[in-house]
Write the structure tokens for this entry.
Amino acid sequence: MINKCMKLYKKYEEIINYLIVGVLTTLVSIVAYFIFAKIFGINYLISNVISWIISVAFAYVTNKLFVFKDKEKDKKQVLIQVYQFVKYRLLSLIIDVFLMYVFVELIKLNDMIAKVINQVIVIVLNYVFSKLFVFKSK
């Protein structure tokens, strides 16, 4: 049974690791938001931006090391990677906001249902963006 599980894990290792990192990134975002908004009393919008920045930084490092196992060490190439990662995360944020507007305002879907659907779409997009454009194999 354990051997079968290990084979299954090896087959889907990257996707499983991506999902684990995604859950951890979400926790980082929520905890950071709570600290800045509730403990430090910073405006909720500013706290949200700060938590997004922290969670994107966390996501970059964990995706690079744990998910895609990228070994790039050249400083210029790493800076390009960071730029690409942030660029595509900003793109997925824009898509996220746009889809929320469409689902809630135009389609009249419940906002929590819309958020769940939206998160699935954004998670898939972030994986594809990272795989194809950020941590692409040489």
